[in-house]
Amino acid sequence: MAQPIPDPFGLAATFGGGEKIETSKIPVGGVVLILVGVLFLLHTMGLTEFGLDRFWPVLLIGIGGWLFARNWGLLSGCRKGCPCARCRTRRVMGPALLLTIGILFLLENLNVVYFGRTWPVILLVIGAVKLLQGSASVEGHIGPGGSGGAVGSPISPANPAAPVPPANEVNRG
User: Fold this and answer.
1) Between helices 28-44 and 57-72, what is the axis angle to 10°?
2) What domain count does the chain have?
3) Range 119-122, long-range pairs (CB < 8 A, 24+ positions)
4) Which of 45, 68, 88, 107 has a CB 3.0–4.6 Å from the CB of 95, allowing a cystine?
5) pLDDT (tens digit, 9 = 90+) per residue, 59-97?
6) Is 93 inside any structural domain?
7) Structural element, H or E, at residue 28
8) Maximum distance among all alpha carbons in the chain?
9) At a CB cut-off of 8 Å and minimum separation 6, what does 36 contact?
10) With 90 as the cut, is the pLDDT of residue 19 above it?
11) Is 127 domain-assigned?
């Protein structure tokens, strides 16, 4: 019938030759979950006697650092969305928390500090990011329609006023 073979899992497109793979379509979250699952499985089977169980927070730190650099616009070619400071600070809460939790767990695994005593650092990081978000400027903001905003202008346009019915008409509803 001259139709291509069904590829429900996308394996032919991923491992096939000739076409360039678009990396933006690779589900990074799924790949990370699989890797973390493999690490935990190896640990429960007793196959991580080489010290991997002490350094698993490095994975969180690495992912958090990469996400922070990507969302802040430090990596070339990874700039997404609006370049204004307010929009950039809205994209860093998750990576900042991932970095913080990874560092705290790593310090606990290295017997430097106990996580039960340092968890308030997470609240400090959330507060610091919220302060950055509230004080960030909207200069150079690009709205949803692609229009640039002026300095000090609100991010979203004001809602239009409701229509007023004519004076000679009676509203019975």
Assistant:
1) 170
2) 1
3) 122/97
4) 68
5) 888 888 888 888 777 765 555 667 777 777 888 888 899
6) yes
7) helix 28-44
8) 86
9) 59
10) no
11) yes
